[in-house]
Each structure stands twice: as C-alpha cells, then as structure tokens.
Amino acid sequence: MENLRHIAIDVLEQTLTDWGEPKFRIKQIKEWIWQKNIGSIEEMTNISKELRNKLHELFFIPKVSIDHSQFSEDGTVKSRFRLHDNRFVEGVMIPTEKRMTACVSSQVGCSLSCKFCATGYMKRMRNLEWDEIVDEVTLLNEQSQKHFQKNLSNIVFMGMGEPLLNYKNMMKAIERITSPEGLGMSPRRITVSTAGVAKMIRQLGDDEVRFKLALSLHAANDTKRNEIMPINESNDLKTLIEALNYFYQKTKSEITLEYILFADFNDSLADAAELVKVFRQIPADLVNIIEYNPIEMADFKKPNEAVTDQFMAYLAKHKVNARLRRSRGKDIDAACGQLANVDQAAQ
Fold first, then answer.
1. b/e per residue 149-172 (b: at least 16 CB within 10 A)
2. pTM of the shown model
3. CB count, 10 Å around CB of 90?
4. Residue 181 CB burial class (10 angstroms; 0-12, 13-18, ≥19)
5. Residue pair 278/236 in contact by the 8 Å Cβ criterion
6. Strand 255-260, strand 212-216: pairing
7. Which domains does the chain have, with CATH numbers?
C-alpha cells in the first residue's frame, strides 16, 4: 500500500478517472488530507463508501498523533509524537509574548553522536517523511491555538536529528508549510539548524533557500570541536566557514551561530577570542550563547554567572552581536539538547 499523501495529484486524478469518478473528488480528497488533517480514509464522509473502500485497498494515511504531552512552569509544552510504525519523536512548543515557536524533529534518533546532546546517544532509526514533519508542525500549531489562542509564528528545526541528513524530506516539508495550502508561513520565520554538514550547506545555497540557517558551533577550534562533535573530523571549521560564505553569497539568508557554554571547556576568555575570530569570517547576524542543560549521559556542567558574564562582556567589547539565550522547559527536559526517547518503539 502507498501513502496517499505521497501520490502525485495527476496520478491520483487518473486513477479516479479510470474509476469513473468526477474531477471534484480530487479537491475533496485534498481537503480531507490537508485542511481537515484526517488520519484514515474512512473519515472522508462526503465521498461514497464504495470509493472509500477502493482507496483503502491501494492507499493509507500514516497519520502522526500526540502520544503524551508535558507542560512546563514557564508555559513550554513538550509532546511525544507517535509515528505510524510506533516509533516516537519529540517536539516542543515555546510561547513568549511576541512569538509562538515550534521546535520540530527531522529524524528518529541521530547518527552524529554529539557528546552534550541526549538525542546523540540514541541510535538513528530512520528519517521522518516530509508529511510526518508537516504533521508535527500542524499538531504543535493546534496546541498553540488551544492553550494560547495564537497561531505559530516561527518554526525551528532544532529537535531530534540532523535536518541536512534528511534533506529532501526537510525541503518538501518546508515547501508544504510555506504554501497557501499549508500554513502559509513565511520562509523567513523558519530556521534550520545543522551540526555542520558542509556539502549540504552548499546545497542549500545552490537551491537558493529563503529560510534562515543556524550552525551549532559550540567550540571555535577544531581540537575542542572534534572532542564534542565527531562530525567536525570530516567537516572542519575551515570547510564550514567556506560553506557558510557560499550559502550567504547565494541566498543572502540570515545565519546564526549557536554556542553552548560548558564549564572549564569552552568558557574562557581565550575561547571567547577564538569565537570572535570565527564570527568575523562568517556573515553571521547573531551568536546565540546558550545555557547548558544537563543530561544523564554526559558530565558537562554550566559555568557560573560570573564566568558567563565575562564571556558575554568580551564578545560585546569586540562588537560581536551576541545574545544569552535562557533555556525554556528545563523542568520537563524540553530544553536545548534534552530531547530524547528511551522507548524508540512502542512495546
């Protein structure tokens, strides 16, 4: 059986024509799938039972559902999504006064093994299909409407997995999310975060994408970055800097650097000086300095406030546009680097 949402419209149209169905059935089916977000063909109540049975013999709708949600004291909502094969991913809805942001996943698990990230300690089970990513966003938007009476304003691909290693599905999902038939969201309100896959950063440039890009930097020299991010061994800083410049040259889209502070590892003034050097080689708009959020699998610690303040002051002195990002949802393990699922498949 084939995923009904993956069938090309002209193919489906021909199938319905061969069955003697009128052309307006296509519009009805599209509305059920994308506007009404049904999870089964049986829910298409304005088409005949006979046609539903025919569709059911050939197609299925692998609908994503919310398995469980947790609510933080700060308003953040973390949801565990059940996929059609009973695997799970997590997504987060982050409310602020000005924004309602969805943090979405692109893979079940991850293959990059970043030492500070809970997802990095999981095995990568599979990529999410593009329609599964769209379902994540749709469900988080429904949560935003229900709990805050607002639509999502922003989407960040900063959940489980490396988006650039699921390139086609990520791109197709963004195409749907930004289309009038989807959420109609501006690409400028979408940020894709990567651990640093230089080849695919260049591909983003060649595709002239209009969404924003964030690089998870976290160390500004190769020795330290190799230690915490194994991907740096094949995508070193020089290669990444060249790729980011190529991306900006092609797209003029905003680039952000993400930098988690780890006590006694990358939080010294010497580290800050190296970060300034990297920043000056990239057309980045912003450096997000991020609080470390502890996970059981790693021994990293957050630096004290005085060290953090000194680090931020050094960046400001050297005219780096930096912002200290306070983590949201820490009490429910929904903060940066904490998304994971012990149960990768339902028992």
1. eeebbbbbbbbbbbbbbbbebbbb
2. 0.91
3. 25
4. exposed
5. no
6. parallel
7. 2-60 (1.10.150.530), 65-332 (3.20.20.70)
Q: What is the pLDDT along the chain (347 residues), one digit of tens a residue?
A: 899 999 999 999 999 999 999 999 999 999 998 888 888 999 999 999 999 999 999 999 988 999 999 988 888 999 999 999 999 999 999 999 899 999 999 999 999 999 998 888 888 999 999 999 999 999 999 999 999 999 999 999 999 999 999 999 999 999 999 998 888 999 999 999 999 999 999 999 999 999 999 999 999 999 999 999 999 999 999 999 999 999 999 999 999 999 999 999 999 999 999 999 999 999 999 999 998 988 888 889 999 999 999 999 999 999 999 999 876 655 555 545 455 654 443 32
Contacts 24+ apart (CB under 8 A), 61-69: 61/3, 61/4, 61/5, 61/33, 62/3, 62/5, 62/129, 62/131, 62/132, 63/37, 63/38, 63/39, 63/135, 64/132, 64/135, 64/136, 64/139, 65/39, 65/139, 66/139, 69/143
Amino acid letter, residue 82: R
Catalytic positions, please?
90, 336
Distance from C-alpha of 37 to C-alpha of 41, rounded to nearest angstrom: 11
Amino acid at 146: K
